[in-house]
Amino acid sequence: MRRTLCLIACLIAAPAAAQVRAVEVRTPRPFGYFLGDLVQATVEIDVDPGFVLQAASLPSPGPVAYWLDLRAVERETAGTRQRLRLTYQTFYAAIDARSLEVPGFPLVLASDDRHGSTTATVQVPAWSLGLSPLREVQPPRRADPADYLRPDGSGPRLRSEPMRTVSLALAALALAALGLLARDRAWWPFRARPSRAFAGPARRLAVLARGPQTDETYRAGLTALHRGLDAAAGQRLLADDLAAFLARHTAYRGQQDGLDSFFAASRLAFFGGATGDARAQLPLAEVAATARRLAAAERAA
Amino acid sequence: MNDIRSGDAILTDWRAAAARFERAVAGAVLGQDRAIRLVTIAIFARGHVLLEGDVGVGKTTLLRAVARAMGGAYERIEGTVDLMPTDLVYHTYLAEDGRPRVEPGPVLRASEDLAIFFFNEINRARPQVHALLLRLMAERSLAAFNREYRFPHLQVFADRNRVEREETFELPAAARDRFLMEIPIEAPRDAEARRALVFDPRFHDTDALIAEVEPNLLDPSALAGIASAIQHGVRASAAIETYVVALWEALLRPHAAGIRLPGIDDLAGLVQGGASPRGVAALVRAARVRAWLEGRDWLVPEDVRAVFPEVMAHRVFLEPVHELRRSEIVPALCRAVFETVPAP
């Protein structure tokens, strides 16, 4: 619904009248504006060929009246028709529906030809704007003044699932990284247990002592305890090193007798070529008992 | 623990003689019990010995005491730059009647009874002399005066000053390999022995000190027989054979045996060679003598370990880049070998 507000400019001066044919102000509607609304107004001026609007004569954006601001001015030319698009904003707090006049303004048209410059002034007429109040003047009484306020708009609902998923994933990643770090630094679960040198040999000897007794198993049993002693000493332990070993590892000092007879039997079995004598001197069960006592001493240490 | 059978009573007697010999030498040389034990082992293994050490630690005294306690014909010579091989074999002079004379030199003077030839400061002698010595040590023979001399009882003792390098000639590898042992001699660490060595006037006069040593405790002509009896009498079990071969392998290829030495990155290229079969055979010979001295007629790993550094260290040849640090690397390598190779 577009109503045209058409005013033919009065002819003040003959030359100007001859050059400006028509001035027209259009708005989408003449009423129904509220406080803060933007009002689009289009000024159309039909001119003689060669005349254009002088840029300097255009109204500049800014306050027009105490209740009205001009927000934007756009100019376009279509043949002999000069068009201005004006954007106003009204700040009039109306208490009843009323019509206010938007003031007119002059514009200068200019034509440059080889005889010189011809200018013509055209007055854009004032036009009226119908403004309406936002609410009634006297609202119904409320017991609680807070009731006059509208409730707060509810904010957008935040979804917590993705965040929980991400945080769980990051926690798992952090845990994995901690695991890697602990492994790298040999922290707790990765810290090698002080290897139990005698635990394995003691088990192996217990198994061998229960089984059938041959020279082979006897030598295998002795070798097992030798390996345990090597591991405990951190080097290969020969019979002559026993005293130094016991001086260093005081926990096993109580087993000196057992170890002495073990080394004597081992020498005899491996190097003396008398495994039978060695078995008679120190049966495998006793070697196993020595190993068990060593393992116990190792755990206690 | 005396496991030697009664039929080997002669070995038992000789063991007592060896103990007397060790005591006699230890009376004159303080704080060198290990060196004396090793020299004793070398004597009964019929091996030549090279002593190495600083100046004035008693290398010469030890060898003179050993020579006196052992008995038999004894000659000594000092290594010098101008010593020539002929100086060992003969010397020429004009006699009182004005006629030239040729007399046997130190090696030939005692003829074929020569039991101990003592070469002092061996690294001062020239390579020509080393070459002569090489044959003397390896074959116990020498060609001179159109005939061949044999020295069945000969044992060469040499000493070498470790500090000085000027005007010396490094022993060739072949000559070093001929020595059964290279025994490092160091001043005793024991404070009491040091005090005695410095303050007791008995140790100041070396000649008098050596004269106190009980002489002729071992009969050189019988040593070869007894040495052979020891080698045949001391048994080596299959376990010890495996052990020695594993030691040998670990010494030659330490990286393969899993040995790590601090400060050496390319362990694979550390050992260039050496540790010859002759060297390992010498190791077993010396270990057998040690077992016999300990009163056993079978070998144990401790016997091998007791003689290993002195018998094997000088037979290992390192890459030239490591050769300068030899005195650190080789003992560490020997220790690591024994710490790595499982005994039984």
Automatic annotation (TrEMBL), chain A:
What are the start and end residues of every segment in region (Disordered)? 140-160
Signal sequence: where?
1-18
Q: Where is the composition biased (Basic and acidic residues)?
A: 140-150
Its keywords, alphabetically, are: Signal
The protein in question is named MxaA protein
Q: What organism is listed for this UniProt entry?
A: Methylobacterium oxalidis
Automatic annotation (TrEMBL), chain B:
Q: Name the gene for this chain.
A: moxR
Q: Which CDD domains match?
A: AAA
Q: Name one Pfam family in it.
A: AAA_lid_2
Name the chain's protein. Answer: ATPase AAA
* Signal peptide stretch: none
Q: Name one GO molecular function term.
A: ATP hydrolysis activity
InterPro entries, alphabetically?
A: AAA+_ATPase, ATPase_AAA-3, CbbQ/NirQ/NorQ/GpvN, ChlI/MoxR_AAA_lid, ClpA/B, P-loop_NTPase
SUPFAM superfamilies of this UniProt entry?
A: P-loop containing nucleoside triphosphate hydrolases
Q: Which residues form the AAA+ ATPase domain?
A: 45-189
Species of origin: Methylobacterium oxalidis
